[in-house]
Design brief:
Helix content: over 70%
Number of strands: 0
Number of domains: 2
Number of helices: 16
Largest sheet: none
Shape: globular
Protein backbone atom coordinates (compact mmCIF):
# COMPACT_ATOMS: atom_id res chain seq x y z
CA UNK A 1 0.00 0.00 0.00
CA UNK A 2 2.80 2.41 0.89
CA UNK A 3 4.66 1.69 -2.35
CA UNK A 4 1.48 2.09 -4.42
CA UNK A 5 0.84 5.43 -2.76
CA UNK A 6 4.45 6.42 -3.31
CA UNK A 7 4.23 5.63 -7.01
CA UNK A 8 1.05 7.69 -7.26
CA UNK A 9 2.73 10.59 -5.42
CA UNK A 10 5.71 10.41 -7.76
CA UNK A 11 3.45 10.52 -10.82
CA UNK A 12 1.67 13.57 -9.40
CA UNK A 13 5.02 15.23 -8.60
CA UNK A 14 6.16 14.65 -12.17
CA UNK A 15 2.95 16.18 -13.51
CA UNK A 16 3.17 19.28 -11.30
CA UNK A 17 6.89 19.63 -12.03
CA UNK A 18 6.20 19.24 -15.72
CA UNK A 19 3.50 21.93 -15.67
CA UNK A 20 5.66 24.35 -13.68
CA UNK A 21 8.64 23.84 -16.01
CA UNK A 22 6.72 24.07 -19.27
CA UNK A 23 4.61 27.05 -18.24
CA UNK A 24 7.14 29.08 -16.27
CA UNK A 25 10.22 28.07 -18.33
CA UNK A 26 13.68 27.97 -16.69
CA UNK A 27 13.67 31.52 -15.32
CA UNK A 28 10.17 31.36 -13.84
CA UNK A 29 10.82 27.86 -12.51
CA UNK A 30 13.94 29.18 -10.83
CA UNK A 31 12.00 32.06 -9.24
CA UNK A 32 9.42 29.62 -7.89
CA UNK A 33 12.21 27.47 -6.46
CA UNK A 34 13.70 30.48 -4.67
CA UNK A 35 10.32 31.52 -3.26
CA UNK A 36 9.96 28.03 -1.77
CA UNK A 37 13.62 27.49 -0.83
CA UNK A 38 14.12 30.09 1.89
CA UNK A 39 10.88 29.55 3.90
CA UNK A 40 11.49 25.79 3.73
CA UNK A 41 15.04 26.18 4.97
CA UNK A 42 13.96 28.55 7.76
CA UNK A 43 11.37 26.02 8.89
CA UNK A 44 13.82 23.14 8.87
CA UNK A 45 16.24 25.17 10.97
CA UNK A 46 13.57 26.16 13.50
CA UNK A 47 11.37 23.07 13.77
CA UNK A 48 13.59 21.54 16.49
CA UNK A 49 12.96 18.07 15.02
CA UNK A 50 9.46 18.05 16.51
CA UNK A 51 8.15 15.72 13.81
CA UNK A 52 10.83 13.18 14.78
CA UNK A 53 10.01 13.66 18.46
CA UNK A 54 6.29 13.19 17.80
CA UNK A 55 6.99 10.12 15.66
CA UNK A 56 9.22 8.57 18.33
CA UNK A 57 6.73 9.22 21.15
CA UNK A 58 3.85 7.83 19.11
CA UNK A 59 5.82 4.74 18.03
CA UNK A 60 6.87 3.93 21.60
CA UNK A 61 3.35 4.60 22.98
CA UNK A 62 4.66 6.83 25.78
CA UNK A 63 1.55 9.03 25.81
CA UNK A 64 -2.10 8.71 24.67
CA UNK A 65 -2.84 9.99 21.14
CA UNK A 66 -4.99 12.88 22.41
CA UNK A 67 -2.19 14.12 24.63
CA UNK A 68 0.41 13.81 21.88
CA UNK A 69 -1.83 15.66 19.42
CA UNK A 70 -2.58 18.53 21.79
CA UNK A 71 1.04 18.89 22.85
CA UNK A 72 2.31 18.86 19.28
CA UNK A 73 -0.29 21.44 18.18
CA UNK A 74 0.63 23.90 20.92
CA UNK A 75 4.33 23.49 20.23
CA UNK A 76 3.68 23.92 16.51
CA UNK A 77 1.63 27.10 17.05
CA UNK A 78 4.42 28.68 19.09
CA UNK A 79 7.01 27.67 16.50
CA UNK A 80 4.95 29.08 13.63
CA UNK A 81 4.59 32.46 15.33
CA UNK A 82 8.30 32.71 16.05
CA UNK A 83 9.48 31.52 12.62
CA UNK A 84 7.13 33.79 10.67
CA UNK A 85 8.33 36.75 12.73
CA UNK A 86 11.98 35.87 12.10
CA UNK A 87 11.33 35.30 8.41
CA UNK A 88 9.66 38.68 8.09
CA UNK A 89 13.03 40.31 8.77
CA UNK A 90 15.33 37.78 7.11
CA UNK A 91 13.54 36.99 3.84
CA UNK A 92 13.81 40.48 2.26
CA UNK A 93 17.59 40.23 2.64
CA UNK A 94 17.72 36.79 1.02
CA UNK A 95 15.53 37.87 -1.92
CA UNK A 96 17.08 41.33 -2.30
CA UNK A 97 18.45 40.49 -5.76
CA UNK A 98 15.02 39.42 -7.05
CA UNK A 99 12.22 41.52 -8.54
CA UNK A 100 9.63 43.28 -6.39
CA UNK A 101 7.02 40.73 -7.49
CA UNK A 102 9.13 37.76 -6.37
CA UNK A 103 9.84 39.45 -3.05
CA UNK A 104 6.12 40.06 -2.48
CA UNK A 105 5.25 36.44 -3.32
CA UNK A 106 8.02 35.22 -1.03
CA UNK A 107 6.65 37.31 1.85
CA UNK A 108 3.08 35.98 1.79
CA UNK A 109 4.24 32.45 0.94
CA UNK A 110 6.34 32.42 4.12
CA UNK A 111 3.40 33.58 6.27
CA UNK A 112 1.10 30.88 4.85
CA UNK A 113 3.59 28.05 4.39
CA UNK A 114 4.98 27.78 7.92
CA UNK A 115 1.72 27.16 9.89
CA UNK A 116 0.05 25.11 7.15
CA UNK A 117 3.09 22.89 6.62
CA UNK A 118 3.53 22.28 10.36
CA UNK A 119 -0.12 21.32 10.75
CA UNK A 120 -0.03 19.00 7.75
CA UNK A 121 3.24 17.43 8.91
CA UNK A 122 2.13 16.79 12.49
CA UNK A 123 -1.20 15.33 11.40
CA UNK A 124 0.54 12.91 9.03
CA UNK A 125 3.07 12.00 11.72
CA UNK A 126 0.30 11.03 14.14
CA UNK A 127 -0.86 8.37 11.67
CA UNK A 128 2.68 7.24 10.84
CA UNK A 129 3.81 6.93 14.45
CA UNK A 130 0.80 4.82 15.40
CA UNK A 131 1.36 2.66 12.29
CA UNK A 132 -2.01 3.61 10.83
CA UNK A 133 -0.53 3.33 7.36
CA UNK A 134 -3.86 3.82 5.59
CA UNK A 135 -4.29 7.23 7.21
CA UNK A 136 -0.64 8.13 6.68
CA UNK A 137 -0.71 7.23 3.00
CA UNK A 138 -3.99 9.05 2.36
CA UNK A 139 -2.99 12.34 3.99
CA UNK A 140 0.45 12.41 2.38
CA UNK A 141 -1.05 11.65 -1.03
CA UNK A 142 -3.53 14.52 -0.70
CA UNK A 143 -0.69 17.07 -0.57
CA UNK A 144 0.42 16.39 -4.14
CA UNK A 145 -3.06 15.67 -5.47
CA UNK A 146 -4.34 18.92 -4.00
CA UNK A 147 -1.41 20.83 -5.49
CA UNK A 148 -2.16 19.34 -8.91
CA UNK A 149 -5.88 20.09 -8.58
CA UNK A 150 -5.27 23.73 -7.70
CA UNK A 151 -2.76 24.10 -10.56
CA UNK A 152 -5.39 22.68 -12.92
CA UNK A 153 -8.00 25.09 -11.58
CA UNK A 154 -5.70 28.07 -12.04
CA UNK A 155 -4.89 26.95 -15.58
CA UNK A 156 -8.61 26.87 -16.39
CA UNK A 157 -8.85 30.42 -15.03
CA UNK A 158 -5.88 31.50 -17.14
CA UNK A 159 -3.62 32.10 -14.12
CA UNK A 160 -0.09 30.86 -14.77
CA UNK A 161 2.24 33.01 -12.67
CA UNK A 162 4.83 32.07 -10.05
CA UNK A 163 2.37 33.32 -7.40
CA UNK A 164 -0.34 30.96 -8.65
CA UNK A 165 1.93 27.91 -8.40
CA UNK A 166 3.01 28.97 -4.90
CA UNK A 167 -0.63 29.37 -3.84
CA UNK A 168 -1.51 25.96 -5.31
CA UNK A 169 1.25 24.40 -3.21
CA UNK A 170 -0.20 25.93 -0.03
CA UNK A 171 -3.65 24.70 -1.05
CA UNK A 172 -2.48 21.09 -1.35
CA UNK A 173 -0.96 21.14 2.13
CA UNK A 174 -4.09 22.74 3.58
CA UNK A 175 -6.35 20.08 2.07
CA UNK A 176 -4.14 17.36 3.54
CA UNK A 177 -4.24 18.97 6.97
CA UNK A 178 -8.04 19.37 6.97
CA UNK A 179 -8.66 15.80 5.78
CA UNK A 180 -6.23 14.45 8.37
CA UNK A 181 -7.79 16.46 11.18
CA UNK A 182 -11.25 15.13 10.35
CA UNK A 183 -9.88 11.58 10.30
CA UNK A 184 -8.07 12.03 13.61
CA UNK A 185 -11.22 13.48 15.16
CA UNK A 186 -13.26 10.46 14.06
CA UNK A 187 -10.64 8.20 15.64
CA UNK A 188 -10.89 10.11 18.91
CA UNK A 189 -7.29 11.31 18.76
CA UNK A 190 -7.93 15.06 18.76
CA UNK A 191 -7.35 16.79 22.08
CA UNK A 192 -6.60 20.35 23.14
CA UNK A 193 -5.07 19.96 26.62
CA UNK A 194 -1.27 19.60 26.40
CA UNK A 195 0.85 17.69 28.87
CA UNK A 196 3.89 19.70 29.91
CA UNK A 197 5.89 16.62 30.88
CA UNK A 198 5.27 15.21 27.40
CA UNK A 199 6.24 18.58 25.91
CA UNK A 200 9.51 18.56 27.86
CA UNK A 201 10.19 15.01 26.74
CA UNK A 202 9.51 15.89 23.09
CA UNK A 203 11.61 19.04 23.25
CA UNK A 204 14.45 17.11 24.87
CA UNK A 205 14.37 14.42 22.20
CA UNK A 206 14.02 17.04 19.49
CA UNK A 207 16.95 19.05 20.80
CA UNK A 208 19.19 15.98 20.57
CA UNK A 209 17.98 15.20 17.06
CA UNK A 210 17.83 18.76 15.82
CA UNK A 211 21.54 19.42 15.45
CA UNK A 212 21.89 16.52 13.06
CA UNK A 213 18.64 17.38 11.27
CA UNK A 214 19.64 21.01 10.87
CA UNK A 215 23.06 20.18 9.48
CA UNK A 216 21.45 17.54 7.27
CA UNK A 217 18.99 20.11 5.89
CA UNK A 218 21.75 22.60 5.25
CA UNK A 219 23.90 19.95 3.60
CA UNK A 220 21.01 18.89 1.34
CA UNK A 221 20.20 22.48 0.40
CA UNK A 222 23.65 24.08 0.30
CA UNK A 223 23.96 23.40 -3.43
CA UNK A 224 20.62 25.13 -4.11
CA UNK A 225 21.60 27.97 -1.78
CA UNK A 226 24.83 28.44 -3.74
CA UNK A 227 23.07 28.35 -7.11
CA UNK A 228 20.37 30.76 -5.90
CA UNK A 229 22.94 33.14 -4.41
CA UNK A 230 25.66 33.19 -7.08
CA UNK A 231 24.03 32.12 -10.36
CA UNK A 232 20.92 33.20 -12.24
CA UNK A 233 17.25 32.26 -11.86
CA UNK A 234 17.60 30.52 -15.26
CA UNK A 235 20.39 28.32 -13.82
CA UNK A 236 18.26 27.66 -10.73
CA UNK A 237 15.38 26.51 -12.94
CA UNK A 238 17.62 24.03 -14.79
CA UNK A 239 19.08 22.78 -11.52
CA UNK A 240 15.81 22.16 -9.67
CA UNK A 241 14.34 20.28 -12.64
CA UNK A 242 17.41 18.01 -12.60
CA UNK A 243 16.96 17.54 -8.85
CA UNK A 244 13.29 16.70 -9.30
CA UNK A 245 14.10 13.93 -11.76
CA UNK A 246 17.17 12.62 -9.91
CA UNK A 247 15.27 12.45 -6.61
CA UNK A 248 12.49 10.37 -8.17
CA UNK A 249 13.76 7.03 -6.81
CA UNK A 250 14.29 8.65 -3.39
CA UNK A 251 10.58 8.84 -2.75
CA UNK A 252 10.59 5.03 -2.61
CA UNK A 253 13.51 5.10 -0.17
CA UNK A 254 11.77 7.74 1.94
CA UNK A 255 8.73 5.49 2.09
CA UNK A 256 10.88 2.60 3.30
CA UNK A 257 12.48 4.87 5.90
CA UNK A 258 9.09 6.15 7.04
CA UNK A 259 7.84 2.61 7.67
CA UNK A 260 11.15 1.38 9.11
CA UNK A 261 11.60 4.00 11.84
CA UNK A 262 8.54 3.19 13.97
CA UNK A 263 9.13 -0.55 13.50
CA UNK A 264 12.78 -0.30 14.58
CA UNK A 265 11.84 1.95 17.51
CA UNK A 266 9.12 -0.42 18.68
CA UNK A 267 11.31 -3.55 18.67
CA UNK A 268 11.83 -5.10 22.10
CA UNK A 269 15.59 -5.80 22.02
CA UNK A 270 18.67 -4.22 20.39
CA UNK A 271 19.22 -7.42 18.40
CA UNK A 272 15.71 -7.27 16.98
CA UNK A 273 16.14 -3.59 16.16
CA UNK A 274 19.30 -4.38 14.19
CA UNK A 275 17.61 -7.25 12.37
CA UNK A 276 14.70 -5.06 11.29
CA UNK A 277 17.06 -2.26 10.31
CA UNK A 278 19.11 -4.61 8.15
CA UNK A 279 16.06 -5.82 6.24
CA UNK A 280 14.92 -2.29 5.43
CA UNK A 281 18.47 -1.10 4.64
CA UNK A 282 18.94 -3.78 2.00
CA UNK A 283 15.53 -3.08 0.51
CA UNK A 284 16.33 0.64 0.31
CA UNK A 285 19.67 -0.03 -1.38
CA UNK A 286 18.13 -2.35 -3.96
CA UNK A 287 15.52 0.28 -4.81
CA UNK A 288 17.99 3.16 -5.02
CA UNK A 289 20.60 1.36 -7.15
CA UNK A 290 18.03 -0.01 -9.58
CA UNK A 291 16.21 3.32 -9.81
CA UNK A 292 19.40 5.35 -10.29
CA UNK A 293 20.73 3.05 -13.03
CA UNK A 294 17.47 3.02 -14.98
CA UNK A 295 16.99 6.76 -14.71
CA UNK A 296 20.57 7.56 -15.71
CA UNK A 297 20.09 5.61 -18.95
CA UNK A 298 16.76 7.29 -19.73
CA UNK A 299 17.63 10.86 -18.67
CA UNK A 300 19.06 12.04 -22.02
CA UNK A 301 15.79 11.18 -23.73
CA UNK A 302 13.32 11.60 -20.89
CA UNK A 303 14.14 15.07 -19.53
CA UNK A 304 13.86 17.05 -22.81
CA UNK A 305 10.79 15.04 -23.78
CA UNK A 306 8.94 15.68 -20.54
CA UNK A 307 10.11 19.16 -19.61
CA UNK A 308 10.92 20.61 -23.03
CA UNK A 309 14.07 21.38 -24.98
CA UNK A 310 14.68 24.45 -22.81
CA UNK A 311 15.70 21.98 -20.06
CA UNK A 312 18.03 19.85 -22.21
CA UNK A 313 21.01 20.72 -19.99
CA UNK A 314 19.14 19.36 -16.97
CA UNK A 315 19.59 15.80 -18.30
CA UNK A 316 23.37 15.94 -17.80
CA UNK A 317 22.93 17.45 -14.35
CA UNK A 318 20.51 14.65 -13.48
CA UNK A 319 22.99 11.94 -14.52
CA UNK A 320 25.68 13.48 -12.30
CA UNK A 321 23.32 13.68 -9.31
CA UNK A 322 22.22 10.06 -9.70
CA UNK A 323 25.78 8.90 -8.93
CA UNK A 324 25.23 10.02 -5.35
CA UNK A 325 21.74 8.55 -4.92
CA UNK A 326 22.77 5.18 -3.38
CA UNK A 327 25.04 7.04 -0.92
CA UNK A 328 22.14 9.24 0.11
CA UNK A 329 19.75 6.30 0.46
CA UNK A 330 22.11 4.37 2.75
CA UNK A 331 22.78 7.47 4.84
CA UNK A 332 19.07 8.09 5.28
CA UNK A 333 18.58 4.56 6.60
CA UNK A 334 21.55 4.98 8.96
CA UNK A 335 19.83 8.09 10.35
CA UNK A 336 16.66 6.09 11.03
CA UNK A 337 18.67 3.52 12.97
CA UNK A 338 20.52 6.10 15.08
CA UNK A 339 17.27 7.92 15.87
CA UNK A 340 15.51 4.66 16.75
CA UNK A 341 18.34 3.79 19.17
CA UNK A 342 18.13 7.36 20.56
CA UNK A 343 21.70 8.08 19.44
CA UNK A 344 20.73 11.18 17.50
CA UNK A 345 23.62 13.40 18.56
CA UNK A 346 25.97 11.24 16.48
CA UNK A 347 24.09 12.25 13.33
CA UNK A 348 25.23 15.86 13.59
CA UNK A 349 28.93 15.01 13.37
CA UNK A 350 28.48 12.90 10.26
CA UNK A 351 26.30 15.52 8.58
CA UNK A 352 28.83 18.19 9.46
CA UNK A 353 31.47 16.18 7.61
CA UNK A 354 29.20 16.01 4.56
CA UNK A 355 28.48 19.74 4.79
CA UNK A 356 32.20 20.48 4.94
CA UNK A 357 32.77 18.36 1.84
CA UNK A 358 29.92 20.13 0.03
CA UNK A 359 31.24 23.59 0.89
CA UNK A 360 34.77 22.69 -0.21
CA UNK A 361 33.52 21.17 -3.47
CA UNK A 362 31.25 24.14 -4.18
CA UNK A 363 34.10 26.57 -3.55
CA UNK A 364 36.34 24.67 -5.95
CA UNK A 365 33.84 23.69 -8.64
CA UNK A 366 31.03 26.26 -8.83
CA UNK A 367 33.16 29.11 -10.30
CA UNK A 368 34.70 26.74 -12.87
CA UNK A 369 31.83 24.45 -13.83
CA UNK A 370 28.71 26.43 -12.90
CA UNK A 371 25.64 24.33 -12.13
CA UNK A 372 27.49 21.13 -13.12
CA UNK A 373 29.94 21.95 -10.31
CA UNK A 374 27.02 22.17 -7.86
CA UNK A 375 25.85 18.71 -8.99
CA UNK A 376 29.30 17.19 -8.43
CA UNK A 377 29.47 18.87 -5.01
CA UNK A 378 26.19 17.13 -4.11
CA UNK A 379 27.67 13.73 -5.00
CA UNK A 380 30.81 14.41 -2.94
CA UNK A 381 28.78 15.50 0.08
CA UNK A 382 26.61 12.36 -0.02
CA UNK A 383 29.67 10.08 -0.21
CA UNK A 384 31.51 11.76 2.67
CA UNK A 385 28.39 11.93 4.87
CA UNK A 386 27.73 8.22 4.30
CA UNK A 387 31.25 7.26 5.37
CA UNK A 388 31.03 9.38 8.51
CA UNK A 389 27.55 8.04 9.32
CA UNK A 390 28.73 4.44 8.94
CA UNK A 391 31.47 5.10 11.48
CA UNK A 392 28.96 6.63 13.91
CA UNK A 393 26.61 3.68 13.51
CA UNK A 394 29.37 1.21 14.32
CA UNK A 395 30.62 3.16 17.35
CA UNK A 396 27.23 4.03 18.82
CA UNK A 397 25.30 0.77 18.52
CA UNK A 398 27.93 -1.76 17.43
CA UNK A 399 26.27 -2.42 14.08
CA UNK A 400 28.35 -4.55 11.64
CA UNK A 401 27.86 -2.00 8.87
CA UNK A 402 29.35 -3.84 5.89
CA UNK A 403 27.71 -7.13 6.82
CA UNK A 404 24.30 -5.47 6.96
CA UNK A 405 24.48 -4.67 3.23
CA UNK A 406 24.78 -8.36 2.29
CA UNK A 407 21.44 -10.01 1.36
CA UNK A 408 20.38 -12.91 3.57
CA UNK A 409 18.42 -16.07 2.84
CA UNK A 410 15.40 -14.47 4.51
CA UNK A 411 15.63 -11.51 2.10
CA UNK A 412 15.47 -13.81 -0.92
CA UNK A 413 12.61 -15.78 0.62
CA UNK A 414 10.60 -12.61 1.30
CA UNK A 415 11.30 -11.32 -2.22
CA UNK A 416 10.12 -14.63 -3.72
CA UNK A 417 6.96 -14.56 -1.58
CA UNK A 418 6.25 -10.99 -2.67
CA UNK A 419 6.68 -11.87 -6.35
CA UNK A 420 4.36 -14.84 -5.89
CA UNK A 421 1.69 -12.54 -4.41
CA UNK A 422 1.98 -10.16 -7.38
CA UNK A 423 1.63 -13.07 -9.84
CA UNK A 424 -1.60 -14.12 -8.14
Amino acid sequence: MSFATTIAIQIVNILTGLLAARILLPEGRGELAEVMLWPGLLLEFGILAMSDALLYRAATRLAPPKVLFATAMWIGAAMAAILVAVGHFVLPLLLAHETATVRMVGSWYLAAFVPVYLLSLFVATMFQGHLDLVGWNVVRAIVGLGYLAFVGLFLLLGRTSVADFALASIGGMALSAVAGLVWLYRKGWVGWKPDFSVARSMLGYGARVHVGEMVNSLRQRVDQIAVASFLTAHDMGLYVVALTVANGPMILVNTIAGVAFPKISGAATPQEKLRIFGVYLRLAMAMSVAGAAALAILAEWLVPLVFGQAFDRSATLCQIMLLGLPFFAAKLMFIQALNAFDRSLAIGWAEAAGLGAALAALYALLPRLGIEGAAWALVAANAVALGAMAGSLNRQIGAPVLAMFRPTADDWAQAAALLARFKR
